[in-house]
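ligand=3-methyl-2-oxobutanoic acid
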Amino acid sequence: MPSVTDLRAKAGSAPITMLTAYDAPTAALVDEAGVDVILVGDSLGNAVLGHETTLPVTVDEMASHTASVARGVDEALVVADMPFLSVGVDEAESVRNCGRMLKEAGADAVKLESGPHTVALTERLVQLGIPVMAHLGLTPQRVNQLGGYTRQGTTEAAADEIVDLAGAHEAAGAFALVLEHVPANLAAALTEELDVPTIGIGAGPDCDGQVLVFHDVVGLSTWTPPFARQFGDARAEMTRAVESYLEAVESGAFPADEHSHVEADLEGLY
Ligand code: KIV
């Protein structure tokens, strides 16, 4: 099983692959395909739980889905995303919430949507043995403040802020940095400057790795961000299977003899 140090060692030599998963069978599939990191994203809220944003996702839901993912994985590093307001309100509560993901749910690390408020917390978590992946650029938990899922770091001042925060989180001990929806040239400069790996989503080709949401990749999402690419059409295949099932039941073709059994001892009784 790779550790956060293996991930750091891989940076720069081969692209790091990261994908989300939210349950054991999907995590097993993604793990067997050979992904380096499985993120139990709080995108759980939109992708799986039917919410419009990630904001309603709870710590209990993240712990439960992370535990499910951890049970399905043999090789990949499992990272649990910390949901809205689970960190940053109170240090002790933040540490306990993050600790649950390792202690109770079996994650290897946590990811924090980062900002000035997570620098000291990152340092504290790392001191306590909780590896932290930072996340800068578009942080979807701020959707109400941002007014949408908009590009970040597009002005010099905004880019400088991201550069400063990236450096501060590296100094605080974060083992990797997700960069979301930022200019490719900003991500490339940060990748060059930082020792820790950068993992991009809508951040161009020059990051040390890439991450996408599983449902976007396999074609299960009803909406995909402009920077995502659909690599399959699972929705079409699932719809075909469900429609075939309905048709077989309605026509009497299912269940067939091979799906049923007759008990000889009961013959004549009923
Ligand atoms: O919640 C999530 O899936 C994420 C990734 C998109 C980085 O934060």
